[in-house]
Model the fold of this input.
Amino acid sequence: MVEPIKGLKWKYGGEKTTDSFIAIDVDTKYQEIMGFGGGFTEAAALQVVRTTSVGVPMGSYNFAETENDMELKDFDVDVELRRDERLCTM
Done:
């Protein structure tokens, strides 16, 4: 486990020393973050809300199939999933 360092305080524009420090260059861009995702696993469900499992609906569908369509120009809620395209029949 990470232990907090007592007496450590963050300050902006402080004097740089040869001791450990973090320099943040806000003018240099290395990558663009598109977003953050995550999974809600059974272990997370048990820890967060004390449930035993999380259901994932069979037959869920993607209404925005066009790759890299960040403006969702081809988003269509009227699309019907044809039976022969289903991943699992029950």
Notes: The radius of gyration is 24 Å. The chain has a mean pLDDT of 70. The longest helix spans residues 42-49.
